[in-house]
Design a protein that fits this description.
Elements: H1 7-11, E1 16-20, H2 22-25, H3 33-40, E2 44-47, E3 54-57, E4 66-70, E5 73-74, E6 95-100, H4 104-107, E7 114-119, E8 127-137, E9 141-151, E10 155-166, E11 171-173, E12 182-184, E13 190-204, E14 207-221, E15 234-249, E16 253-270, E17 275-295, E18 298-313, E19 318-336, E20 339-350, E21 358-367, E22 372-383, H5 387-391, E23 403-414, E24 422-441, E25 448-471, E26 474-489, E27 494-495, E28 498-499, E29 511-521, E30 524-533, E31 536-537, E32 545-546, E33 549-562, E34 565-574, E35 593-605
Parallel strand pairs: 4-7
Antiparallel strand pairs: 1-6, 2-3, 4-5, 6-7, 8-9, 8-35, 9-10, 10-13, 11-12, 13-14, 14-15, 15-16, 16-17, 17-18, 18-19, 19-20, 20-21, 21-22, 22-23, 23-24, 24-25, 25-26, 26-29, 27-28, 29-30, 30-33, 31-32, 33-34, 34-35
Length: 614
């Protein structure tokens, strides 16, 4: 067993998982995490466009119910409760694993709907490589990146620098104005730059130290929406995240200790309204976990996690400190290769709140030499109020209860051909969430307050088809995926004299999906990808909606190699069919744009790769 494996990969048996590998991520070097998830999974993305935030939601939940991890650490904002995916570069990870469905017992808070895990793995073999990449977009956007990797039998280092300038001077159709004129987006410049440094050391047999630093600065002009004539507001973000972990493997026990420090600051400046506000949150995280190899077919883990958040907002009436401590345990039983069973339990203690004890269980059973894999997964879920939900004034509510509920899913993966080149998957799920938190108007003055107003019932299915084959020297890959989601308010909430009971939640599409086809021939690559998004209601009474849309892109690239050196050239056309659409009402999205880019990789490899094992 890899002593640095993440917990969900070991104790997430029965979960529906989508994987995005390094080869796929290489095509998104200039993109953010939102674009990667939208085009490679059934996740629903709510994107406010250039200069705005982007969030992800699973199975009819919201962005606050989606946990995002960087090497096992949650990067959701403690104040907002969600992760702004537009600020997360896609090239920070070697691979991305997407876990569909609630996993509160395994991963704790912010994972009621699902989990996105960005993972980097130390490379313990003699190697050295440097990669230089660049990209230009006709909308006035350009990207530059530099990566340096080196290592040996007991050392691994990965350094990345990136700079992204998005002028965002794209064309769009303004459907809010008479005649629907074509306009050019204004005041939408985004400058984003930073670095990451990740280190790994095998100091002795069975011992590993890992460390990481992520620093980033972003300046985002906030563009006017389609109903506005202009805007002058600017949002500036600074992020510093660092962690250190130590792992020691004994004969029957592996112990890991990890500590992390996050410093995140946001400044909102609007000269027109005279607002200049700074929001700063410092997070301290400590994890201690032991893995126990009890029997040849049985292993378990138990751990404790501590979180402390210090926030200094004027709207909080001073400095706020929020402390959380979580105790958890899990067991995995594999009596024979075809059967896997796991159990998990977690209890989190929070200042001013009392989340429930959350158990979960999962099972996987394979038939006919892994031709058919059956999955079953279920458990109790919870989600804590964000700091803004509790402390923001006016409207924050310190008496909020945690959101909680039960959910489960069942499905299968069918691999009908012997070479496993074809895979068909299907998962159906049900979830009921109580005490759903919503900011709701409490009087005629427009004052909103956070309240536990809703009971939400979400159900549906996810299905995917993947097939790859080779005809002489032509490799062809096919993919299709679709999600069907019904997520309705089951509580009696009256708005404007009408009950919201039974209404689909806002911005939750009933249908969404992706399709793609890829051809590879003599190091030429041609890939066509399409994303479909169904109708989304924009009001809680379902009286107004955004129409369905389908957006396609095409990618053409060529890889040149000389010995161990590589040079990639590519061109990519986004919104190939010039689709006019909105992801969020009155927020512009670009018509057809063209990208061109390159990547130069210089490699020096001496020996074959070795893998660190217990």
């Amino acid at each position: 067993m890899d002593i640095s494996a993440n917990r969900h990969s070991e104790f997430g048996t029965g979960t529906n998982i989508t994987r995005v590998d390094s080869a796929t991520l290489a095509r998104y070097q200039e993109e953010n995490l939102a674009t990667v998830l939208e085009t490679n999974s059934s996740i629903s993305i709510k994107d406010y466009g250039a200069g705005g935030i982007a969030t992800a939601s699973f199975r009819g939940t919201s962005g606050t119910h989606t946990g995002v991890l960087w090497n096992g650490l949650t990067i959701n904002s403690p104040s907002l409760g969600l992760c702004d995916l537009s600020l997360v570069p896609s090239n920070l990870a070697d691979e991305i694993n997407i876990y569909h469905g609630g996993s509160s017992a395994v991963n704790g808070n912010s994972a009621l709907g699902g989990l996105v895990s960005m993972e980097s793995k130390p490379a313990y073999y003699d190697h050295m490589s440097m990669s230089l990449s660049g990209n230009y977009n006709v909308s006035g956007n350009y990207y530059g990146g530099l990566s340096f990797k080196t290592g040996g039998k007991s050392f691994s280092s990965k350094t990345q620098l990136f700079y992204n300038y998005d002028g965002n001077q794209f064309h769009f159709i303004n459907t809010a104005k008479k005649g629907h004129p074509e306009q050019t987006q204004s005041h939408a410049r985004v400058i984003n730059y930073g670095f990451t440094q990740e280190l790994g050391f095998r100091i002795r047999k069975g011992q590993e130290i890992k460390a990481g630093i992520w620093g980033q600065l972003t300046s985002r002009q906030q563009p006017p929406n389609m109903t506005m004539n202009s805007s002058e507001s600017v949002l500036n973000d600074s992020v510093f995240r660092t962690y250190l972990s130590y792992t020691k493997a004994f004969d029957k026990v592996t112990v890991t200790a990890k500590g992390a420090y996050f410093d995140e600051t946001e400044n909102y400046d609007d000269h027109r309204s005279g607002i200049n506000s700074t929001y700063k949150v410092i997070s301290y995280m400590v994890d201690l976990v032991g893995k126990f190899y009890l029997l040849p077919h049985l292993d378990a883990d138990a751990g404790v996690s501590f979180r402390r958040f210090d926030a200094a907002f004027d709207e909080y009436d001073g400095k706020i400190t929020d402390r959380r401590i979580s105790f958890y345990a899990g067991a995995r039983y594999v009596p024979f290769p075809a059967l896997r069973v796991r159990l998990n339990i977690r209890n989190e203690q929070v200042s001013g709140s009392h989340p429930p004890v959350v158990p979960s269980a999962g099972i996987e059973y394979s038939l006919w030499h892994e031709l058919l894999l059956l999955k079953l997964n279920g458990g109790k879920q919870y989600n804590l109020p964000s700091l803004n939900d509790k402390y923001w004034q006016p409207g924050g509510n310190r008496d909020l209860l945690p959101e909680s509920g039960w959910g489960g899913d069942a499905g299968f993966i069918l691999s009908p051909d012997i070479k496993r080149n074809m895979k068909i998957s299907f998962t159906t799920y049900q979830m009921l969430v109580n005490n759903w938190i919503q900011w709701y108007p409490i009087d005629s003055t427009g004052l909103y307050q956070a309240s536990n107003l809703k009971k939400v019932h979400a159900w549906g299915f996810e299905t995917a088809f993947d097939y790859s084959f080779t005809l002489k020297k032509l490799h062809i890959g096919l993919h299709a995926g679709i999600a069907y989601t019904i997520s309705t308010n089951e509580s009696i909430v009256v708005q404007n004299g009408e009950t919201m009971e039974g209404k689909q939640l806002v911005y939750v599409p009933i249908y969404n999906g992706t399709t793609s086809i890829e051809f590879e021939f003599h190091k030429f690559i041609l890939a066509y990808q399409s994303t479909f998004m169904g109708k989304r209601y924009t009001q809680a009474d379902n009286r107004d909606s955004l129409p369905p849309f389908q957006v396609a892109s095409i990618y053409f690239g060529k890889k040149f190699t000389y010995r161990q050196q590589e040079f990639d050239l590519y061109i990519k056309i986004n919104n190939l069919w010039n689709e006019q659409y909105q992801q969020v009402k009155w927020h512009a999205t670009p018509l057809r744009t063209i990208n061109a880019g390159f990547r130069l990789t210089l490699n020096k490899i001496k020996k074959s790769k070795t893998i660190l094992k217990k």
